[in-house]
Write a structure and sequence with these properties.
By secondary structure, the chain is an alpha+beta fold. It is 36% helix and 20% strand. α9 packs across α11. The chain is elongated.
Amino acid sequence: AAARGCGGVWRRAWQRGAGGPAPAPRGQRAVACNARGGAVPAGKSGLAPWVPVVGLEIHAQISSNSKLFSGSQVQFAAAPNSLVSFFDASLPGTLPVLNRRCVEAAVMTGLALNCSINKRSLFDRKHYFYADLPAGYQITQQRVPIAVNGSLSYSLCIDNKMSQMVTKTVRIKQIQLEQDSGKSLHDDTRNQTLVDLNRAGVGLMEVVMEPDMCCGEEAAAAVRELQLILQTLGSSQAVMAEGQLRVDANVSVHHPGEHYGVRTEVKNINSLRFLAKAVDYEIQRQIEELENGGTILNETRAFDSKLGCTVPMRDKEGKQDYRFMPEPNLPPLILYDAKSLPANMNHQQVVNIDWIHERLPDLPSVKRAKLVERYGILPEHGFTLLNEDGLTEFFENVVKQTQMKPKKVIGWILNDLLSYLKQHSLTVKESPVSSFLLADLLNLLEKKEISSTAAKQVLAELWKGEGKTPFEIVKEKKLELMQDQKELEQICQAVIDGQENEVIMMVLG
């Protein structure tokens, strides 16, 4: 089932762009972005370069034991319809009870994304009809969301060169709390659709990003940074493979100085790699369509990962009326800060914005800076360590257990270990070479008991996962460096003595 977002917010954002010429900063930014590494050249018509415009709506499942408005448990891959309360099934007479944990997670996320937290936010009903939405409406925050006007800074490399990185910022329009829908399972063999309501009512944070990006690489980098922030905060596990982070990409193209083009929305992308491919494909598709005299439809599309292209789902030309109305069963959500908190108020019964702000952990950008400062590594190394799940912990464990300097350790991890992992499509946690084994190997190298070439041979043997230690492999393969000068001279003399003809030829020149 689709994660249905706030289409109205996006319509207003694009209408601002379509209502007149695109502002100069927007065009300049987009063209500059393309010139750095994703240039969209002038087409067959010979007109100026195209300016792609990309905005994102991201649905992050809140990390909570229970759902947003009911006490039902939240668990991935549970037996179908085993985690459904009366409220989730929308039985008459049931009422929503707001989950405090979900509110705190949304506030925490808003603060981490530099948002203004609304002390008074409202819940609304958004009406539409799907088999996996029993009530016929979704409870969301259309009018006054919990957080607004934030920003997210992210980094990406130019021309795939880690040494050339640029930092960009995307504006966050709003963050809103809302329910997830259930899941429809289509059985083509029996020509029927089955409905699983386990996911119905699970708490979501919808993060709406302004259309400040211009290519798939930027979109993927921004979502990856958001994913790291959510995981650092603990507000969402953000595992895309489990549907805990789903992305809708809004894409349009126009010439510099012209109105924004008609946008299409690519729904429910659940992989960073697919997100980059979907956005780039859609940009190119729209350019080719326009240059061939066609028009772009305001439609919803899906990304087919097998074919590597987007395909139509439904058009949006007839504007859908969601019939938004205030949620009558939920009062306004009131939050407090240190100044507004009444003296006689029970602190356990309110959400204190300042209390949450004081307890925010170090965000990824701060962690990267600390890695660079603590270990003397390059900024791009800190970026890679944090972007690869579990790699920072792996690196720090190796540094603790080896005598080798961190600057040299980072080279072995990024150039050798990481290349092995990517070659075999493994995560750091799945690596057959533990931090202990790598540290053991680097200690042998640092003590000059083996050469760098031999160390690479040992690492290749360790990768086989046969349970041998680096020392055992060195002994077995006879890879030790010879330390005895006299023994080395005897070996050299024996080689010379055995090659008399070659020696004579060398002497004679």
